[in-house]
Amino acid sequence: MKDYQVVIVGGGATGVGILRDLSMRGISALLLEQGDLAHGTSSRFHGLLHSGGRYAVKDPQSAAECIDENLILKKIAPHCISDTGGWFVQTKDDSPGYVEEWIKSCAGAHIPIREVSISEACRKEPLMDKNVLRVFEVPDATVDGFRIVWANARSARHYNGEFRTYHQAERLVTDKGQVTGVAVRNLLNGHQFTVHCDIVVNAAGAWASQLAGSIGIPLDVICDKGTLLAFNQRLFHRVVNRLRPSGDGDIFVPHETITILGTTSQFVDSPEDNDPQQEEVRSLLEIGEQLLPGIMKNRIIRAFSGIRPLHREDHDVPGVKEEGRNVSRSFALIDHELQDGIKGLISIVGGKFTTYRLMAEKVSDRVAEKLGNTTPCHTAEEDLLPEIPEHVYKKAARLLPYAPVEKMLERLQEDAEDVLKEIEQTPHKGQMLCECEMVSMAEVEKAASDEDTHHLADIRRKTRLGMGTCQGAFCTYRALPLLWQKKEKYDSLDEELRNFLNQRWKGIRPVLWGQQLRETELTRAIYSGILQFTEN
User: Fold this and answer.
1) Residue 454 pLDDT more than 60?
2) d(Cα 262, Cα 250) in Å, to the nearest integer?
3) CATH 3.30.9.10 is the classification of domain 80-140+222-311
4) Which of 124-128, 339-343, 521-525 is predicted with the least confidence, judged by mean pLDDT?
């Protein structure tokens, strides 16, 4: 007796996209994630919704996929996306020959572009270097990785899809050349059990090779570390790219009140090797100076790194070895019955956040075919989130200050009405626990009460608590009692505080100078001095 038809391993954008797609087709599915949803690569990137422009020359197929998915996601998930638009900018150091090739390639991939006059560009982006040579507009946008992953998960749950966070897939279970399930450990209580199924989908990203390797299947997944910087203000109104082959430090991505500069590319040995380094920070700033003169005058609130799980396919080509940015950013769907003679296992590796829905569709098509399910994919037609009713907007505007209304409603979606009712009955719960990101006490209480919330970091991913300028200096100690009263199993207040603050410190340490250093000293004084919080 099978517990589910399909078990999906990996709770990033692709994994939850697969869960939603399968569930909409009536296929019973369970997703297992070793941490919280979106705690890995899907939240550790620049947040760009690609137009395809960055891949137009080198990988026209990926470019065409990006522009198609860009338009689909803008239609089905507008609450998760800011349609900023984007520019590709040629500086004096960028090759004119590449610019002409790029223009032709964009036309071939059906990416709409418009040349912007230098005078218009300087007027619209006054901080940009005035000596740029050419500027082209493309339909880039920005996307909130946390929000879109959770929107997929909630939509899947509406169609009876299930997911378990903090459940680690320790190994695959096989019988006579067939994968029949997954051996699982609940990381919260140590409980071990086996989930039986017809098919396992390996969407574990940077951990995909480890899962396949548990039954001796080789899967060449490269861990490519990319480091980014978050500035405490919106330096550009739109995405600004260098018009050259992809390289380090060639993109600025605005998100609400901050700007992200990225990214580096460095192969590492493990998915856990994601600590940003000071030399990476210096390199990004030196390159960023070419588009944003005086960049060092702007405050950086943190550095962070994500691991791109790249799939290298050159192992069968004599004399060829893909390295660095030459490794393809496209995705690979691997049916291990065809490749390795093992039935019941499909892996999806590589790809980009922008194409997560397409990747999920391709995987789900293959799974449905194997299960004899003929229901077609509908994820490109059905809205990911329901429209927020007008009366909810009006109620929020009446109960809350102007600034947090839009942010809170977009985060809460279908839970917004319940939270507003709580604020109406208990007005002090409308106070902002996190002034940087405009997160109210009632919203934190709601996130803390969710059955899949176990740590302060889980609340952070749902609400953006602690992700603003103060990096948790004030909101952490305010929020902890709310988690504590909802999650009585915790027995170490110090441990929860320490884990949360250490994660913030991990990104602050490489940018510790100027105003950021002064604020870090304030944070230390609050926790070590006033609250008597001791370090290990």
Assistant:
1) yes
2) 7
3) yes
4) 521-525
Pairing of strands 331-335, 258-262: unpaired
Phi first, then psi, for residue 529 (nearest 5°) are -90, -65
DSSP strand pairing (162-164 vs 266-268): unpaired
φ and ψ at residue 51, rounded to 5 degrees: -85, -15
pLDDT of residue 446: 93
Fold match between 4-41+146-220+314-371 and 80-140+222-311? Answer: no
Per residue in 464-498, pLDDT (tens digit) is 999 988 899 999 989 888 877 765 544 577 788 88
Distance CA 214, CA 170 (A): 8
Eight-class DSSP state of 513: S
Could you read off the pLDDT of 189-203 as tens digits, one per residue? 999 999 999 999 999
Tell me whether the omega of the peptide bond preceding residue 263 falls within 30 degrees of 0, making it cis: yes
Would residue 478 be called left, alpha or beta, if left means φ above 0 and alpha means ψ between -120 and 50 degrees?
alpha
Domain 4-41+146-220+314-371 has CATH 3.30.450.20: no
Q: Is 218 helix (H, G, I), strand (E, B) or coil?
A: coil
Q: In one letter, which amino acid is 374?
A: T
What is the maximal distance between C-alpha atoms in the chain?
70
Q: Which residue has the tokens 């907007």?
A: 393
Contact assessment for residue 359 and residue 331, using Cβ atoms and an 8 Å cutoff: yes
| Cα separation, 214 vs 205, whole angstroms | 15
3-state secondary structure of 118: helix
- Three-state SS for 309? strand
Residue 420: C-alpha distances to residues 269, 396, 409, 439 (Å): 47, 7, 10, 13
CA distance 56 to 225: 23
Predicted confidence (pLDDT) per residue in 135-152, tens digit: 999 999 999 999 999 999
DSSP string, 257-300: TEEEEE---EEES-TT-----HHHHHHHHHHHTTTSTTGGGSPE
The model's pLDDT over 328-364, given as tens digits with 9 standing for 90+, comes to 567 999 999 999 999 999 999 999 999 999 999 999 9
Q: Which sign, positive or negative, has the C-alpha torsion 22, 28, 34, 36?
A: positive
Type of residue numbered 253: V
Residue 499 CB partners (closer than 8 Å, separation 6+): 455, 456, 457
91 DSSP β-pair partners? none
Task: Give me the residue spans of the domains in the chain.
Answer: 4-41+146-220+314-371, 80-140+222-311, 390-530
Distance CA 37, CA 32 (A): 10
Token duo for residue 368: 């449905």
Q: Return d(Cα 203, Cα 18) in angstroms, integer.
A: 9
Helix, strand, or coil (residue 211): helix
Judge whether 279 and 303 are in contact, CB under 8 Å: no
pTM, 2 dp: 0.93
The pair of structure tokens assigned to 428 is 């002090």
